[in-house]
Amino acid sequence: MDEGRPGVAATLRALNEALGRPAALWVKESGARNLRHRDFLAPRAALSAAFPGGQPGPLLALRPPVPPEAVSAVSSLRGPAVLPLRVCRQTPAGLAVQVRRPEAFQRLLGPLPGPAPTAAGARTGCVVLHCSALRSPAALRPRHLRSVLLADHLAQLLRAQGVGVCLVPALSEERSWDVLRQLRICWPSGSGGSSLTDAVSALKAALGRCPCAAACEQGPGTAEGVIYKVQLKSFVEQQGLLGYDPNLDVLLVTEETLRSLAELQEAVLQCPVSDPMAPPASRFPSQSSCCSIVHVVNCEEEFQQQQLDVLWRILDPGAHTALQKHLVCGPVKVTNPSSPIGADQYFQLRKRQMYEASVIKYGELAQDEAWTEVIDTLTVAAIRFEMLSTAHRSQITLDLENNSISTKGTKSGAFVMYNCARLATLFNSFQRAVEQGTYPPLPPASELNFSCLREEGEWLLLFNYLLPFPEVLQQAAQLPPPSKGIRITANTETVCKFLIQLSMDFSSYYNRVHILGEPFPHLFDQMFARLQLLAAVRDVFHSALATLHLPPLSQI
Question: What InterPro entries does the record tag this protein with (predicted)?
Answer without folding.
Answer: DALR_anticod-bd (IPR008909), DALRD3 (IPR037380), tRNAsynth_Ia_anticodon-bd (IPR009080)
